[in-house]
Every structure is written in C-alpha cells, then in structure tokens.
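Record format v2
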Amino acid sequence: MSTARNIPNDRGLSLRMFTTGLMIVLLYGAVIGLLIAVGISYAIVLVLAAALLFVQYWFSDKIALYGMGGRLVTPEEAPQLHGAIDRLCAMADMKKPRVAIADTDVPNAFATGRSPNNAVVCATTGLMRRLDEPELEAVLAHELSHVAHRDVAVMTIASFLGMVAGMVTRMMLWTGMIGGFGGGDNNDNQGGDNAALVELAVLAVSVVVYAISFLLTMALSRYRELAADRSGALLTGQPSVLASALVKVTGDIARIPTRDLRSTESFNAFYFTPAIAKSGVSISTIFSTHPSLDQRLAQLAAIEAEMGRPS
Amino acid sequence: MGLFDSILGRTKPVQADLDALFGLPSASITLQSAAATACSGHAGVCFKPQTGQGFADNQAEVMALLQMDDTAGLTSTQDSFGYQWLVMEDPDIEALVTRIHLVNSSLADAGWGPQLLCSVFGLARLPAGSPTDADREGARVGAGSVLPSTAYLVYLFKRGTFYPFVPTGHEQRSTEEELKLRSLVADDLSVETDLDRWFPLWDLPVP
C-alpha cells in the first residue's frame, strides 16, 4: 500500500523523463571529452558558466521574486493563501515554503528556491482573483510538487550545457567578427588555416550541442510539468479541480495584452502555465517548456478515472 | 523522498501514523491536575475527500459505523478549504479517543491514509470548585460532561505528533497559552518540535 488507493506510478512518464535525463548526461560526457581533446583553453568557459549558473541556482529564490515583483507575505496578510499551503504541507509532510504574492494581473504561480528548505511559492494577484479556493489549492499543490521534486536544481543542472554551448557560440561569433576567423597578423599562413579550421569546428559543434541540449531541456521541462500535475492531483485527491484551474488560467492568459506578457517571458520554465499561450496547434511544441493544455487535461482525466474506480 | 524519486519527479503519498493518539487520556489527567484543564469532550477528524466512488463508499461506511454506536453528537461538515470534518462528542475521553481512532483506522485501512490531515481534541478549563484531585473515587478523567472548548490539541497524522492551538478571536492565537500547554503535555505526548508546523486552524468546526 504505497500510494493512495494504489494509483500506480506513471511508468511511461518516468521512463521518458529518465531517457531525456540520460541523453543530457551523455551529451555532457561527449562535450567534456571534446573539450579535453581540443585543449584546455575552453575550460575557462566551463568555469565561467558554472559560476554564473551557480549564482543563478543559489539565488534563484531572490532572482525570481525580484524579477516578478513578488513580495513575501505573512500569515496575517494572506491568511487564505497561508492556510491552504499549511494544510497541503501537513498532508504531504513537507516543510512549509515561504509564501509570496506578485502584484500583477497575469494569472500565474511559480515555485523557486534551490532546495525544499529555501523554497518560495508565489501566486499572482490575478491568479487569486480568478480562481476559487479549491482551484487555488490545486495550483498550490502543483507548485509544492515542483518544490518536492527539486525541479529548480534539476532544471539548472540540465540547462547548464546549453548555456555553455550558447556562450561558446556567441564568443566565437564575436571574436570571429572582430578579428576574422584565425586571421591573426602574427600567424604564418599554415598556422592560421589550422586555427580557423579548429575554430569553425568548435563553432559548429557548439551550435549543434546548443540545439540538442535546448530541445532536451525543453522536453525535460515538459515531463516535469506533467509529473508536478500528477503529484499535485494525487495530493489534493481532485484532479478535475486542477484541470478546471488550468482551463481558466490558460483561457485568460490569451486575452491579456502582450506587453505584460513579454516582460514575464524569461521566467516561463518555473511557471504554472507559460505566459505566451499559443492558441491552436503550434509548430513549436518541442520548443515549449510546458506541455499542451490538452496533454495536461488528458493526464488529469486519466487520474480522475483511476480514482473513480470503485474499490 | 529519495534521490531517484527526485530525478523522476515522483512523490510518495505519506501514510498516517495513528498510534500516538492513545497518549491522550494520560495527558488529560496531567492537565487536570496541573492546570485544571481537561479534554472538553469534543473531537474532530479532518481529511481531504478524494474524488470518486471508492472514497464516498468508505466514508459512508465509517459514518454508519459511528452511528451504530448510539451517540448523538456526530456531525459532518465541510470547511472553506474543502476539507471534510467529522466532529463527535463524548464526555468519556477514553471512549472519545477510541472513536476517533476508529474513524482514522477505518479510513487508513481502506487505503486513504494519505488523505488524513489531522485530528483535533478540544480542551476546556474545568469549572471552579470542581474536584481537581485525580485520586477521588473513580478517578474520573476529563470534565465528566461536555464543555465548550477553549483550547485544542491538534494531532498531525503524517508526523505522529501533537501541537496545542489556542484561538483567541478572529484569526488570532495565543502563543503564550500554547507554549504553556506544550510544557504541560510534553511528558505524555510527542509534541511537534518544528514550530513552523503548528499551523492555525481558523473557524474550527469543533465546538
């Protein structure tokens, strides 16, 4: 009796997530091998990127809160929000994260922080205005699942390589444009050609690595959204409430002016629903951090059906 | 949660721990002798109803089981957070704990352990002049009759711990009274050590 009413783990989802993670790890190995083969000069890029990412990871709570204009609130200021989170945490036996409210009408919520001990769950005023209490609770359960799954840490590690490759690409193009590829004056012709070849190869490899790791990261992000939906629905025991919250929020998002949305775009990976909602079928499902609404609703409906089966 | 579950984005539902409930009668005796306070005879179980017929069936079974026990005081209400409360009353603290345990264990045995949130036991200050020495004939535990509660002991299923909760008005609680209660019951009950988890339960349906 490991789960409520023995709702089984979604093996398919676990497998897809594991495969994606494995591919990211393999890509890591390949790139590090390549770096060693090419020479040590690119190690500095690696160190730099690692430092940047570490800062981003370590201060993820502050960065995200600052970026979104989120403000930590006390239980007295927001008794309803705190009450819902208190109960969910007691049900799930997890430490209560800090609670914040962002004063924007974009209906959304996010969870951030490097570990469950430093987590912050933030809801926007637009979200609280639009959803009724059970729906708000369902969204909070989804965010708490992100905290429990340590998604900030996982996504930071997963996106590291893409960031390195992106930096290398940009650096190469930049130096290439200024100096011309391999066009140092003090090089003799033979050496210049070799250097140009090597640099072109590095550029090509880093572009490819960037593309692959970008796609993999996006896929991983989508799987983790589905996993958080699933855990959240199991925690509240009411998948259909989360589904209705999703429908309300995504429906509303599309109607909000774009200027507001652009300013929140870079935080999509940690969001409940992405702020740029594409209506209809988009060519870019594989470029998306979040699974499509249909996909999320279908999963919730499947859980609901499993719960509905009489014992 | 293990590393593997973290990597695969899974959470295991936490099962409820029911055994620590039986420390309550002795805590009530301690409170009675030390602070002229005892269990008020009111108690409630709070759980999150899960969607679907399976849960509804089990809940109906539990209700039927409790109603067989002839007692009048059994009410079922839903609070503003969507949690279900089964509130019952019994002047005999032992009987009350047994009934609460019956609800909890029937739900947990049917696989609904993860849905249980907490049990709440009311405490009341005994009327002045009532005998507080427990060695009187019969060594009666508790108020002997049902009193309105002024303070509560909350049992967290997932932690297996108690914490005191003393509401004093609209969304206000008396931390001082709570800490006092904690020191009194600390020997009899396992008290929640993480104060962050002493969450308030405003508008408790337990009278």
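Residues 17-126+137-195 of chain B form one domain.
Chain B is about 30% helix and 25% strand.
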